[in-house]
6-phosphogluconate dehydrogenase, NAD(+)-dependent, decarboxylating
Amino acid sequence: MELGVIGLGRMGQIVANRSLEAGHDVIAFDLSAEATAEAAEAGAEPADSVADLCDRLGAEKRIWLMVPAGDAVDATLADVEPHLDGDDVVVDGGNSHFEESVRRAEETDAAYLDCGTSGGPASAEAGFSLMVGGPKWAYEAMVPVFDAVATGPEGHDRMGESGAGHYVKMVHNGVEYALMQAYGEGFELLTDGRYDLEMESVARTWNNGAVIRSWLLELCEEAFREEGSDLGDVADHVAGGSTGTWTVREALEQEVPVPIIYQALAERFDSRNEGRFSRRLANRLRYGFGRHEVARRDDA
């Protein structure tokens, strides 16, 4: 399949690279000439602009957008739209709000797929989990690429109509907040509790057969191995919060109680003040799965 990839940050490069490795032809563009050159070195055909990328694609264009959520998506769509018709497919693989995805699907001539993408840069080798919303025919047309970018055929599915993919990803992120908070609180109790424990040893042991084993717990083990049981100079500051906020707002609108997700979100915001081990671990875990910058303490 011939695929156009617009947006070649960490995640966009992975989309391009995994598609190339699966034998697909990739035409790539980014506002950064350096990012476009990096994709070209991996085997993609570089484009000079969005218009150039569209011109290089044949009929029935397949385009994957991996640009920051918000205005950047609308601006890119405005550039792409004149080159598209109803036989084309556009995938938004970013963290867009599901209601914005519904609006864009209605306004775009091409079939619009909202694709929640989980796994972060750490999943470059294993592949992503892809939650897709939009027309069934468009999803089926993109299956060869989804197979390549995801962990495989089991790593993606069509969640439903337009907006469903980003809706499921929004709730996924709320669950992620809660899981990180639970691990953080458990290790905080162990750290301040009755015994002198090695946190890496605890995490490793739990990861081998325990009910609570998971990839996030593997990242806890990694964090303690690299930072030490006391997390060294990792600060009590957890960035992010937009998708968790969306989740809580949706829960309020649907009158569904989500107290654990809400509390995890509140803890994240409170971390902009000072002081808890659990939030320092959450800070470090965000590096583990998303390679987000680790805030460090100045007084360590």
Remarks:
- The longest helix spans residues 164-192.
